[in-house]
Each structure stands twice: as C-alpha cells, then as structure tokens.
Write a structure and sequence with these properties.
7-stranded mixed sheet, mainly beta
Amino acid sequence: QVQVVESGGGSVQPGGSLRLSCVVSGKIFAVNAMGWYRQVPGQQRELVASQATPATKTYSPFAMERFTISRDSAKKAVYLQMNNLKPEDTAVYYCNADITQIQPWSHTIYWGQGTQVTVSS
C-alpha cells in the first residue's frame, strides 16, 4: 500500500511564501518522478511543476519565476517553494508520484489528498 501525504498549505497574504512538502511511503521499488498539481473547484487539475531527475524539472508558465520544485530521493519526498504568491494561486495543491513496484511489477501514478493554499488580503 502506497501512501502520499502532503503538508505545508495554509493562508497567506499576496506576496507571501509557502513551502509544500510531500512524502510517499510503502513498498516502493522506485519513485520515477514527483510533482505538484493544483485545482480550483469547478476547474480541471493543472500542472504546477514536476521533477524526475534533477535535470528534468518542468514548470507551468505561472510557476516558472516564482516557484521552485525539489526532490529528496532518499526521503521519497518532493517540495514546492512558492514565493510571491498571488490570489490566483489559491487552490488545492496535490502531490503526484510516478511509482514502480515489483513482486508483482507495476507502474502507477499516485495522488495525495491535497492541501489547501489560500492567498488573500
């Protein structure tokens, strides 16, 4: 059983910062990639940022200059440092993990339960 647990969400004023954390656990052979998505009620979930290797980081345009994704492979964790937050960033942020398991072999995308980020004055 794989668990994906996010933390770090909260409420901040515009221009503030938050650092989101996500840790996966379970019988995992490899974590191939991890990332963050966000979703506003009534809208589709959208990519914020993702990372496989340190050289393969992907950012959505809105996150390119303000957010930083990083992984700690030993901890099976991913982090999202969000700076200069804007009201438009308000959403539920979800952790995403691309995981390989063996015995039997499987390759599956897992999602966390989400953590709320609210940016308002």
